[in-house]
Amino acid sequence: MRGLPALMRAVPARVFGRPPRSGAPRPPGGSSFVALVEQLPSGLRRIALTHSSWVDARTDSYERLEFLGDSVLGLAIASTLCGQYPEYEEGDLARLKAFVVSRASCAQVAERLGVRELILERAPAPEHKRREAVCNQTILGNVLEALIGAIYLTHGFEQARLAVVDAFEEQMRYAVTAHVDHKTALQELLALRGLQPVYRLVNEIGPPHARVFTSEVVVNGAPRGQGTGTTIKMSEQMAAGEALASLSSKDPVD
């Protein structure tokens, strides 16, 4: 698809079928995320696929379910990372989680799970509106989170957690084993909104052979993240990671 962010293209497209490293069982009957979606009450699934521009009242759209699903996703990933990587410090866990639940990551998982096809086939809107929706990466990620919220309401947190971890396992593995370029991820995420990050050095301490730099990233005139490192580039990466964490929590940028 045109315009897919480099961050999304960097992760292999195949889905790994292994259970979580913690060894937790899969949902009863080997149900996958897709199977749990199929088991949703038709009315709830319909709401999860409804964009706010298609209805008179925003409460009839997926927005409330998306709000709930965002929290379920965050807790499922955070609890899994804490359990699987007890040696990681809080900052490391925060950066991993920021990547895994980012807009770009959610959009890729949505593509992999067939959310695009689900919208095209079942969303309650004229065909031209459905086709417009599936070309928007942000909408794909939002619908995925709405479906997570619907799964939680229907099946409870434990089944939702297992399904989410299974669906996002590839993102977690990539975040842990590969170098995640937070600056590129942030730039491409903001480009979808017509914005650009601006980095500035705000502090520099230590002797010449052991300098420590602190950088800040500004988006739309407001500071969005701060990071520290032994090089300016490293401090900018940390700042971008913090900004991604706030954006993944839907903190507005405009």
Summarize this entry quickly.
The chain is mostly helical and 254 residues long.
Quickly list its features.
mainly alpha; single chain; 2 domains; 254 residues; 12 helices
Sheet with the most strands, sense and barrel status: 3 strands, antiparallel
Helical residue percent? Answer: 55-70%
End-to-end distance: 27 Å
The global form is globular
Total strand count, please? 3
How many discrete structural domains?
2
User: What fold name goes in the CATH topology slot of the largest domain?
Assistant: Ribonuclease iii, N-terminal Endonuclease Domain, Chain A
Q: Report the CATH architecture of the largest domain.
A: Orthogonal Bundle
CATH class division of the largest domain: Mainly Alpha
CA radius of gyration is 19 Å
**Could you give me the name of the CATH homologous superfamily of the largest domain?**
Ribonuclease III domain
Structure description:
With about 250 residues, this protein is mainly alpha-helical. The chain has 2 domains: about 5-20 and about 30-180, Orthogonal Bundle (Ribonuclease iii, N-terminal Endonuclease Domain, Chain A), CATH 1.10.1520.10; about 195-250, Double Stranded RNA Binding Domain (2-Layer Sandwich), CATH 3.30.160. Helix content is about 55%, strand content about 10%. The chain contains 12 helices and 3 strands; from the N terminus they run H-H-H-H-H-H-H-H-H-H-H-E-E-E-H. A 3-stranded antiparallel beta sheet has the order 1-2-3. Strand 1 and strand 2 (about 210-220) form a beta hairpin. Helix 4 (about 65-85) crosses helix 10 (about 155-175), helix 5 (about 90-100) packs across helix 12 and helix 7 (about 115-120) packs antiparallel against helix 8. It is globular and about 65 Å long. The two termini are about 25 Å apart. Mean pLDDT is about 85; it is low at about 1-30.
